[in-house]
UniProtKB/TrEMBL annotation, chain A:
It comes from Halobacillus campisalis. This is ABC transporter permease. Keywords: Cell membrane, Membrane, Transmembrane, Transmembrane helix. It is found in: Cell membrane. It is a multi-pass membrane protein. It holds the Pfam family BPD_transp_2. The chain crosses the membrane at residues 7-30, 50-73, 80-100, 106-125, 190-208, 238-265, 277-301, 321-340. The keyword Transmembrane applies. InterPro entries: ABC_transp_permease.
UniProtKB/TrEMBL annotation, chain B:
It holds the Pfam family ABC_tran. It comes from the Bacteria. Keywords: ATP-binding, Nucleotide-binding. Transmembrane segments: none annotated. This is ABC transporter ATP-binding protein. GO terms for molecular function: ATP binding. Residues 5-240, 257-501 form the ABC transporter domain. The keyword ATP-binding applies. PROSITE patterns: ABC_TRANSPORTER_1, ABC_TRANSPORTER_2.
Length: 348, 508
């Protein structure tokens, strides 16, 4: 009745439904009306063109950070350092954006490439440490997040500016912002970055599934011993996988730096774009299309949630709980799989 | 006749296939009863039915003459049925005793009475001559000992009927002998044993009766003392089986592989190959005989580029290939059938089709300027699957889902297809059933007859004697003797492998 493939598609969908249901129960328990609550959430994400634009704006970096995590996982690596790679990407893009004055055809691509390169470099460090010394990438990437956060702050304050907490705005020639998109969505911060994000999803799919390099990367991820036996260089592929993953993350930073904000302010804590990427990748089953869909869901929940306090009196924290519940149900996919198989057995 | 276990006309279906059909297995008290069948014939399914892991669609099970319904393994345990799994279920960092009592610990107040448990384990161990140290940690004891812990686990839970799932697959020849003694002493104490296996030699040696199943069908039960290995093999496979592969005398030509004064270190940085010399010529099979751990694995790894050498040279066609990258070695014309097919031979989570191009994926026609054509990959895979009789639902099936024999056939297909000059085959038939062994032996001889050089490493003396044109005996990192298979026998080889020189062995 169900093939493996349909089961793999069913699991995230059921997880989302279960997450939303449990969210409804929690709303009931605390005396809120779940129908009104979810209604407000829907309104907040799609209710008018401004909200829709903001949702897309939020989805954009999620797609890229999700791709970063998914790419690493597909090659057998757990990149917890997407957050840090987002920071360095953001910094690099803004730096290029404020430091030069060039024609747009050069300036914008340059700023974007700088972000990808910075993210790739931030991924290269844990990559080479793992490949050459066997240091576990999880530990290194976690620490690299902090290094990225504080280094970025220091550079913003003391190198790019003179003691300010925020850089100048980037030159228009490096900006992804679009008056056309903004006007269409009632002056939301939606920008052209969504096109880059969708294109990169295609790139990830192409690299992993269509190129011989992707074949190698996946092979090394699944079985480094057999890959070595087959003549592939395990360490080269580990480093490369971390760099590509980091580049995706760096681009997520560029989306914020060149699109949403146009500047970089020193931050007291993480943006969470990178950490949400882990959840997005998990929900999207590490596939390009899955990541895009999951990023949309997360964006809708995040932006829609902003309307829940005013629309239905439900606190935003509750939406965080619903998101956490969805992730919980995806993570316990084993349980859902078991139920599906049991259902399948009895249905026979 | 009193049967302790009766499984009558059992039928078990899975979606799309019938795993067991009309199988009857009747085990007498105090006998060792063999359950014989090829890989994938349905032996494990049948035993899982008996152990309560699966429910049969048809048929009934009787234990001590009473009809029972075994709904889960706990019921099986209560009925006195214990299973010694092929893949041990032990906690590495726990002691022997802790593993044995796990789940049914004797208690003293709130804590586990480990003293009492140790005493009980020691008593049981002594009673059946198992010789297990109750306080040893699992990670510190050998595989053979770990298996005895598994046996003790079932005995501790009061098992009267022990199911052994291919127990000898992981053991050395010496450990196999000891296991046979243990099984005999278990039977003497009134236990009954079901031995799942596809090794005919073991059945002839220890079993009283043997039930054969083939492709899920029950074929019948025979008394072991009224049969012979040939009959058993043909019952199992469904046709006549040749044990000694027919082959013409070899006509060796140019020297293809030459190893000179080779030194290789292992992972612990200890020299395992110590000044080894070896030649393999076109059109011959050279067998390496030796007891495991005398540097054979390191030699193979050095030849195939997986391990760096310390000194000395490996040359193929006058070209030095030692210390080249694995890819360069592969490109220079060497194929390698690795010892551990799961760890080295296959990416188990890749489709079997992808595994067929594991070394050639970057070459035309599979890849053009870095972009792969999976159409071409799967075309090639389908051809190889057909040619090498790999039984798989499709080329898209994950390698993991294939049986051991079919995985090995796939590896062999892939390696032969590159038209190598030298084939390095390390334990090519390990853990396979007679049908697959026969197929692989025939293929290796075919390759030899095409004028390729074959280096065969095996711990099965039968295989070495049967296939090789020349046998190199390895001891302590060196080839200490070269003999012709027709001029030697198992006794002489055994002595040589233990380090006796040719003269001494000849004198005895």
């Amino acid at each position: 009745m169900f093939t493996n493939r349909t089961i793999n598609i069913l699991i995230p969908i059921i997880s989302v439904i279960l997450g939303l249901l449990s969210g409804a129960i929690i709303m009931l328990v605390f005396g809120y009306n779940p129908v009104a609550g979810y209604g407000a959430l829907w309104e907040g994400a799609f209710g008018d063109s401004y909200f829709f634009g903001e949702t897309i704006r939020m989805v954009t970096p999620y797609i890229l950070s999700g791709l970063a995590v998914a790419f690493a996982l597909r090659t057998g690596l757990l990149n917890i350092g997407v957050e840090g790679q987002v920071f360095v990407g953001w910094l690099a893009s803004v730096w290029v954006g404020v430091a030069f004055d060039l024609p747009m055809a050069i300036h914008l691509p340059l700023a974007i490439i700088a972000a990808a390169a910075a993210g790739a470099f931030w991924g290269f460090i844990p990559g080479i440490l793992k490949a050459k010394l066997g240091v576990h990438e999880v530990i290194v990437t976690i620490m690299m997040n902090y290094i990225a956060l504080y280094t970025t702050n220091a550079i913003v304050r003391h190198v790019i500016t003179d003691g300010e907490d925020q850089t100048e705005n980037i030159a228009d020639s490096a900006s992804l912002a679009s008056t056309w998109l903004a006007e269409m969505t009632f002056y939301s911060r939606m920008h052209y970055g969504i096109l880059i994000a969708l294109f990169m999803a295609l790139v990830m799919w192409f690299i992993l599934n269509k190129t011989s390099r992707g074949f190698e990367l996946r092979s090394v991820g699944y079985n480094p011993f057999a890959s070595n036996y087959a003549g592939m260089s395990v360490s080269k592929n580990i480093i490369l996988a971390m760099m590509i993953s980091g580049a995706f993350a760096g681009l997520a930073g560029a989306m914020e730096g060149l699109g949403t904000y146009g500047y970089l302010a020193s931050k007291s804590g993480f943006t969470n774009i990178g950490f949400e990427g882990i959840a997005v990748a998990l929900l999207g089953a590490n596939t390009a299309l899955g990541v895009v869909l999951a990023a949309f869901l997360f964006g809708i929940l995040k932006i829609g949630a902003l309307n829940m306090p005013t629309g239905a009196g439900v606190p935003t924290e509750l939406v965080e709980i619903v998101i956490a519940l969805i992730i919980f149900f995806v993570a316990s996919s084993y349980m859902i799989r078991w139920f599906i198989l049991r259902f399948k057995k009895e249905g026979k | 006749m009193d049967y302790i276990i009766e499984m009558l006309n059992i039928r078990k279906e899975f979606p799309g296939i019938v795993a067991n059909n009309n199988i009857t297995l009747q085990v007498q008290k105090g006998e060792i009863h063999a359950l014989l069948g090829e890989n994938g014939a349905g032996k494990s399914t049948l035993m899982n039915v008996l152990f309560g892991l699966y429910q049969p669609e048809k048929g009934q099970i009787k234990v001590r003459g009473e009809k029972v319904k075994i709904s889960d393994p706990n019921v099986a345990n209560r009925l006195g049925i214990g299973m010694v799994h092929q893949h041990f279920m032990l906690v590495d960092t726990f002691t022997v005793t802790e593993n044995i009592v796990l789940g049914s610990e004797p208690r003293k107040g709130l804590s586990v009475d480990i003293r009492k448990a140790e005493k009980e384990v020691a008593d049981l161990s002594e009673k059946y001559g198992l010789n297990v140290d109750p306080k040893a940690k699992i990670r510190d004891i050998s595989v053979g000992m770990q298996q005895r812990v598994e046996i003790l686990k079932t005995l501790y839970r009061g098992a009267e009927i022990l199911i052994f799932d291919e127990p000898t697959a992981v053991l050395t020849p010496q450990e196999i002998k000891e296991l046979i003694v243990i099984m005999q002493s278990l039977v003497k104490e009134g236990k009954s044993i079901i031995l799942i296996t596809h090794k005919l030699k073991e059945i002839m040696e220890v079993c009283d009766r043997c039930t054969v199943i083939r492709k899920g069908e029950g074929i019948g039960t025979v008394n072991v003392n009224e049969t012979n290995p040939n009959e058993l093999a043909s019952l199992m496979v469904g046709r006549e089986v040749n044990f000694t592969t027919e082959k013409q005398p070899s006509t060796p030509k140019d020297t293809y592989l030459s190893v000179k004064d080779l030194y290789v270190k292992d992972v612990r940085n200890v020299n395992m190959v110590k000044g080894l010399n070896l030649e393999v010529r076109a059109g011959e099979i050279v067998g390496i005989a030796g007891i495991d751990g005398n540097g054979q694995s390191e030699l193979i790894e050095a030849i195939t580029g997986l391990r760096k050498t310390e000194s000395g040279t490996v040359t193929l066609h006058d070209k030095v290939i030692s210390n080249l990258s694995t890819r360069k070695v592969t490109q220079s014309g060497i194929s390698h059938i690795p010892q551990d097919r799961h760890k080295y031979g296959l990416v188990l989570d890749f489709p079997i089709g992808d595994n067929m191009v594991l070394q050639t994926y970057y070459q035309k026609p599979f890849s053009n300027k870095g972009v792969m054509s999976f159409k071409k990959v799967y075309e090639k895979a389908r051809n190889l699957i057909k040619e090498y009789d790999v039984r798989t639902p499709s080329e898209m099936t994950k390698a993991r889902a294939l049986s051991g024999g079919n995985q090995q056939k796939a590896i062999i297909g892939r390696e032969m297809d590159r038209s190598p000059d030298l084939i390095v085959a390390a334990q090519p038939t390990r853990g396979l059933d007679v049908g697959a062994i026969e197929f692989i032996h025939r293929k290796l001889i075919e390759e030899r007859d095409k004028g390729r050089a074959v280096l065969l490493l095996s711990f099965e003396l039968d295989e070495i004697l049967n296939l090789s044109d020349r046998i190199a005996v390895m001891f302590d990192g060196q080839v200490i003797a070269e003999v012709k298979p027709e001029e030697t026998n198992e006794q002489e080889l055994g002595l040589l492998m233990a380090g006796n020189s040719t003269e001494k062995a000849g004198a005895e």
